[in-house]
Design brief:
- The protein is an all-alpha fold and about 210 residues long.
- About 80% of the residues lie in helices and about 0% in strands.
- It contains 8 helices and no strands.
- Helix 1 packs antiparallel against helix 8 (about 185-205).
- The protein is globular and about 50 Å long.
- Its main location: membrane.
- This is LysE family translocator.
- Keywords: Cell membrane, Membrane, Transmembrane, Transmembrane helix.
């Protein structure tokens, strides 16, 4: 298990990043309105598998560098911290628009396998998602402890957070769309997530 102090930082940071409207959350909301929450669960399954794969690959790859090339890992920490700070600044500067989806993404006749594939591809084909996982997860891994239990704990948090966020978007439907389209609601979500990302980036670079 990671330290409780690290978890206290990781949980709110990942929660606000996850709940911020992006392609997966917008897809869950749109599918929830067009094909229903129950069928949208198939897309969520594919997305969760994809996120788990990306997170595992990110942690294992960086853990290998951490154990075999500690000097390189120190450089990686600085680069990762700077990148997280960059993401945070970009979130602050975001105009608060929701991701746009094509008509194919909301096809009510799509099979369950198509929905699973849709969620999986959305999760693994996003280069920003890979960069985010590579930058964010490794700082919460303690090299002096076994990697597997720590990875399992972080993955559990990620899976629960992602599923809860997508379920909220899929269930919220039109009411949630109206809420997010009003005023600066999305912008404030971006700013909260961005502030947390900047804080984690500074902590990573200085630790």
């Amino acid at each position: 298990m990671p330290d409780f102090a690290l978890l206290a930082v990781f949980i709110p940071t990942f929660f606000f990043v996850s709940i911020t409207p992006g392609m997966c959350m917008t897809l869950a909301m749109t599918l929830g309105m067009s094909i229903g929450v129950r069928r949208t669960l198939w897309m969520m399954l594919g997305e969760l598998v994809g996120v788990a794969l990306v997170a595992t690959a990110a942690v294992m790859g960086v853990a290998s560098i951490m154990l075999n090339y500690p000097e390189v890992f120190q450089i990686f920490k600085w680069v990762g911290g700077i990148y997280l700070g960059f993401i945070g600044v970009q979130m602050w500067r975001a105009r608060g628009k929701m991701a746009m989806l094509s008509d194919d993404d909301t096809n009510p006749r799509a099979s369950n396998l198509t929905l699973i594939s849709q969620g999986f591809i959305t999760a693994i084909a996003n280069p920003k998602g890979w960069a985010f996982m590579v930058s964010l997860l490794p700082p919460f891994i303690n090299a002096e402890r076994e990697v597997a239990p720590q990875l399992l704990a972080l993955l559990s948090i990620i899976m629960v957070t992602e599923f809860t966020s997508m379920l909220a978007y899929a269930s919220g439907g039109k009411s949630l769309r109206i809420f997010l389209s009003r005023g600066d609601n999305i912008r404030w979500l971006n700013r909260i997530a961005g502030s947390l990302m900047i804080g984690v980036g500074v902590w990573l670079a200085m630790s």
